[in-house]
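User: Acyltransferase. Structure?
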Amino acid sequence: MAHKHLKGLNTLRFFAATLVVMDHGRHHLSEMNIDFAENLKVFHRGTVAVDFFFALSGFLISYLAFSEIKQTGKINYRFFYIRRALRIMPLYYLTLTVTLILIAFIVPLLLNESKLGFPLFEGALLFIVMLPNLVKPLWDSTVGGINILWSIGVEEQFYLVFPLIMFCLKKAKSKLIIALFIYLGYLAFYWAVQYGFITSNEVLIKFLGTLKFHFMLMGIFFSLFAHKHLENSDLKSFYYNLINNNIVQIVIFTLALLILFIDFNIASIFKDIFSSLVFSLLILIVSHRTKGSVFNLNIKFLSYFGVISYGIYLLHPLVSYGLRMAVVKIGFLNSLVQSFPIVYILLLLVLTLYVSKLSYRYFETKFLNLKDRFR
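Assistant: Predicted structure:
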């Protein structure tokens, strides 16, 4: 099944992955008793970047699903799950294995203390069955290098309810209205749990708090909007003119930048609504702009970094272990990082890019090449 390539989204992926690296790099410096960018909000936006990834995931998987429905009248869910597994699971399990070996066996030998934070068998089992976001609610001291896998679990869990969402949208006459109601309904449930209106045991509450499906559902809403009002439409139509309008694009990009640089003093539920809306509009505009754009994000080298962004996200904690050891052991590097902390974050990003490139070329592509058999 052929599908349209949505240009510019890989660049957004890279920027989001970079925000995660910057946030974690700042945290690593803090652990080394080096203060850096404590008041510069853009270095505290790892969680926001993950929210963006959720919105992008919802947009893309539903965009492809709606395209498949147009071409074949149905969705082949067996192929859908196989493609998702080939993309996500090989690097996930490789990262999990290497990290567990490192923090469960190698680090205790080197430091004579455990850094794992959870019982090895029970915790590893939850990671293996794609419940990594249940580990930290159960054992709060989970080490950060492996806790990053939580968001992969959220995506996998969303895939389980995705067929039900698509069934509802496929059958609905007013698809956009139903998509909006699904978003608002889940948002209401999520925040009812967060605000204590729905009570349960603490572990379940923390677990449900990781299931930020409303970001994915907003992505689905705008992918449906794209199919209804942009796909196969006249390029001079009202909606194409709207998303190609320079003022509209500047407003959306400005709002996205404000999310990165400013803490809005509003309730968290409204922050979620605002950011999911802005992120999804940004994705829509970047992927469907055709002309007259101030911002063209289809930049070749940044797009490539976006292609390897999954590796950037998963592998940078492993890279950081080696880099932090080098900072401690090498006097010149230690002095350099103490004087110019940004050097650590730049080194972390550059080394992660290189490792991710190797991972993509020599490991991930061996599985990705199999995806074409399941289209």
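The CA atoms of residues 187 and 214 lie 6 Å apart. The chain has 17 helices and no strands.
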